[in-house]
Amino acid sequence: MKSMTLYQKLAWSLVLIFSLLCALVLNWSKQLEQSSVHHAQQNLHLQLAEHLVHDNPLIQQGVYDYKALENLFHTLMILGPAFEFYFVDPEGHLLTYSAKPGQVVRQQINLSPIQQLLDNPTATPIYGDDPRSNDGVKIFSTAPVYNQQQLQGYLYVIIGGQAYDTTLKNIKANDNLWLAAMWFVAALVALFIAMLLLFRFFTLPLKKLNKELNKIEAANYSLTKMSLDSSYTADDEIGNLSKGVNAMLARIDEQFQSLQQADKQRRELLTHLSHDLRTPLSSLHGFLEVINKPDSHLNVPEQRHYLNLAMDNCQQLKHLIEQIFELANLECGQVKIQSETFNLGELIYDCVAKLALTAQSAGISLRVIPEICDFTVTADIAKLERVLTNLIENAIRHTPSGGEIAVKVSQQSDQLYVAVSDTGVGIHEDELNAIFEPHYQARNSIKRGSTGLGLAICKQLLTLMDSEINVSSTLGKGSEFRFNLAMQAPA
């Protein structure tokens, strides 16, 4: 079964509450009206019974002839059909009355209301037993009847008797009263319709928002296919809800796009890894297979040559795996910085000395500018050495024989700028931002054992040290990689 909408729930709730309130108001107004009428009538006829007792000799001298008294009551009812007359003894038993035979169903009444009205006439309305009903009550007028100062009973006059009720009921059925009731009902219906329209107006933004969310859900929460309508921008609860849903969906879409990009990068990384690992493994397998052939008839120098090639491929494979793990740790945030204060010039000369033989064998000269490089910095010395080594090795790989590599240090305010420049092949302008991506290699790069991970590792390490690396290059003339370090203030 389909569940009700918010508007339907509010509408039905309004119907139930409205109906209950109408019933309560009508019942309360009816009771209030009846109480007011009874109060007025009882006050108006409060001394009726007393006047009848004092003005009628038959009652004033004591009642002995109940038949004559019955005829008197009958005569009085003809003159006042809205009244019913009863004479009761001091115990509440009905002695005589004005009703026809069979109309009186109660032969004794409770005297407590009579005594209450006699003691406190201002406490109206006070209701006494209706002899014509087993459980009904009516307003009344009463007076005690004495004979030689001895209580004979009470004259008990019902105000608004059965004849009165019948006549009043017929009057209420009059067309004018029905017309008034119809106008009252029409006013209530108009109010009800107005309330429904107000509920409709208040819940319409929620309905629109729900409709838009259903469309987003149908589009698999992709904002590229469907965008949320943010036309409702009122500064209220629904407006804030709409803005919050917009922000939440934008954030979900951003994370979804990020996950898609991460998945794409993961697939590309696996592709690059399989390719990078396959090359040295295939070479290593080939050289070992040549050496292991029983009919190869290789002499000792040839065997040593193939073993050296196999060792080179093992070393390249080891280096590649180490870089892969290093980059993975950096991207996962598992690498911590351990800062210390040291001399930057000494570190640069150590890195240059470590790679001097490699540069010399490639016909490339290495130098430090300025030669006296005496600067003190606070950083992670091991990671900074890794950055300088990667940048110098990268420059050696992309610089042809006869070229030059320079490590330059300059000071600007409280910052030191370290630059590694070369006179190599340079980088295309459209590739300057892409070279820091893992496994990316420029189109014109000279591959000398490159894995394509060195620059990516450099960028991650410098980011951890709150530094930024930039590159400038001229195609065919060389490149320069530059990063900043905070200079240690002199003691």
Automatic annotation (TrEMBL):
Coiled coil: none annotated. InterPro entries: BphY/WalK/GraS-like, HAMP_dom, HATPase_C_sf, HATPase_dom, His_kinase_dom, HisK_dim/P_dom, HisK_dim/P_sf, Sig_transdc_His_kin-like_C. It comes from the Bacteria. Its EC number is 2.7.13.3. The keyword Transmembrane helix applies. One of its GO terms (molecular function) is kinase activity. It is an enzyme of class 2 (transferase). Its main location: membrane. The chain crosses the membrane at residues 177-199. Pfam families: HATPase_c, HisKA. Residues 272-489 form the Histidine kinase domain. It is found in: Membrane. SMART domains: HATPase_c, HisKA. Signal peptide: none annotated. Keywords: ATP-binding, Kinase, Membrane, Nucleotide-binding, Phosphoprotein, Transferase, Transmembrane, Transmembrane helix, Two-component regulatory system. It catalyses: ATP + protein L-histidine = ADP + protein N-phospho-L-histidine. Residues 200-257 form the HAMP domain. This is histidine kinase. It comes from Pseudoalteromonas lipolytica. The lineage of its organism: Bacteria, Pseudomonadati, Pseudomonadota, Gammaproteobacteria, Alteromonadales.
